[in-house]
Amino acid sequence: MPIVDSKTGKIKKDYSVEELIEKAKEMRAYNMVALTAAGSGHTGGTLSIMDIAAALYLKHIKHDPANPEWADRDRVIWSVGHKAPAIYVALGMAGYFPVSEVVKLRKLWSGFEGHPNRFKTPGIELSSGSLGQGLGVAVGCALNARLEKKNYYTYCILGDGELDEGSVWEAIMSAAHYKLDNLIAIVDRNQLQIDGPTEEVMRLENLVEKWQSFGWQVLEMDGHNLKEILNTLNKALQIKGQPIVIIAHTTKGKEVSFAENVVGYHGICPKDGLTGAESLEKALQDIKAPGFNQEKVNKLLKIACDYQEEVNQKVEQAMPKFSREYWWNSQDIMKVKMIPTRNGFGDAIEELGESPNVVVFGADITSSIKMDQFYAHHPERKKRFFELGIAEQNMTLVAAGFAKEGKTAFIGSYGVFVTGRNWDQIRTTLCYNNFKVKIANAHGGLSVGPDGATHQALEEISNMYYLPNMHIIVPSDSLETEKGTKVVAKIPGPAVIRYAREATPVISKEETPYQFGYANVIRFREEKENFVDAFETKLSTDYQTEGEDIAIIACGPMVAEAMRAAYILKKEFNLETRVINIHTVKPIDKEVIRKATQEIGVILTAEEHQKGGFGNIVAGVVATSKKYNTPFLFDMIGVNDEFGLSGAPWELLKVFGLTAEHIAKRAKELFDQKKL
Fold first, then answer.
1. Which domains does the chain show, CATH number per domain?
2. Which residues are CB-contacts of 419 (< 8 A; sequence separation ≥ 6)?
3. What is the pLDDT of residues 472-483, one digit of tens each?
4. Cα–Cα dist 21/126, whole Å
5. Are strands 338-340 and 244-249 parallel, antiparallel or unpaired?
6. pLDDT tens, position by position, 388-426
């Protein structure tokens, strides 16, 4: 059914197959401009699904862009949320909003987040991005239609790599059990996922027979032939008594020569930017979209640029101001190196791989989290690397089996997935059995930036802390990540290593003390050419009070911000700050916290996490201490009980109030309260 007026039932817009072909080209062009303007995003999968998106939203489904909540509309659930740019251009083309707006992709507050947010963008049925969950939601929608005697259909878009997740197969089984013939799943079978071809990462074939064995009617189609797509979708509507899956054979990166069937273009925009062999210019030449001349492209890019400038101004206006600029590397002195914290994990896992008792597991983002350094320069180690695909629960349990047999096993993924989806497996199998499985909790906090809320880990410190036998380190920079990873590899039992994705300040040195279970105390001394040289760091057991005015207790990348806050407090207000780096969150250094409480009496915690995940742990130590008798003031800096946003990592730190400027402002307020 073409796009209709939900009030009158009249057709608003219909397209012929020939017109759809041209619209699909135009959609691809908007998609590539948006990805280029964003500087990140998923090229391969958005291009492979684009013809299907055009067929669904411009020709097939029953919907009304003027009435997105129309009760009788067909539902389209995008389980594969990283294809969000394709959804946005399809919705824009259908008339939910001006399609030119999609060039604000992944920019702060635009609504066009890295993964779809149903509260921000009209036409989105489900906020998604954590793979393997959409089909279950679609089952619920289809059951609801039956319960309410509605005649709408529910469609669910799935990636083929997503089929690694066991939750998909649970949903497949339940849909067949209820004979949901108003449910149509569409698998984008482009044969590639992040770590390589699906059949090498985790074999899926024979996919037709698998779906059939679960009780589904299986249809196959060329996912780039618009006539065949429409015929197959219409054929699906005639099937009764069982759910339908359409396996769409597609080409990842379709119509863009440098991206077609290239694994590396799963999650990046044109690497040459606007011009070059692998650029927006080349992509648009390949696509040959009608009307996409240089003038139009320039206008679209200007929309993105102007919007970003507005964002920049709003972000900076909200920042606390001081007598001069203290932002990273904004001065001729106090310079700092920026190195991705994840590099430290990669260096550590490469060295740890020298032991034949270390085994490592991939979860389809092996390179991104630097797990691949285990074997990159040591091909003989491949036999101790096990790719299990997008299957966190199974990965945890298989690793436990190795640990049971005496191996040290490393598993890893985005922190939100590797400590969330499999929490019960971690609790019961790893912790209860005290198995030596080490969890690479990668891309912690807001560091994944434009990917948005579904990929930003802001809850896992508290999720992991209260598990018996668990150990947790939250290192502050790449060097500390390397040191900490090597240490926890050797301790008995399970452990979590929480590290960031993006480049963060290097605030320690090789000679900086590091002892598992004991914090470091950091003091600003004087301005130096290099930031790290302006501070003195001692092991907590070696530190004697200097009568400081304020204590800032931090973990992870917030240690660098706490140090910069100490610098600001000294220069602006002549206040002395004791910065305490709690790199080992469990077991936590209780004595260093107790001393700060008794000796200073003003404590501020700082975490790149939901406020209280770390702060409440520190507060618990303070409250249960029997050795202090000094009145004290206590507060926390963190994310205020909300989900993250799409935006540049540093933008997000500013917007969520996690920078040194915010820390210094609140610390000064606490100090002033103490004097009253």
1. 3-287 (3.40.50.970), 339-505 (3.40.50.970), 511-675 (3.40.50.920)
2. 426, 439, 441, 457, 460, 463, 464, 496
3. 999 999 999 999
4. 27
5. unpaired
6. 999 999 999 999 999 999 999 999 999 999 999 999 999
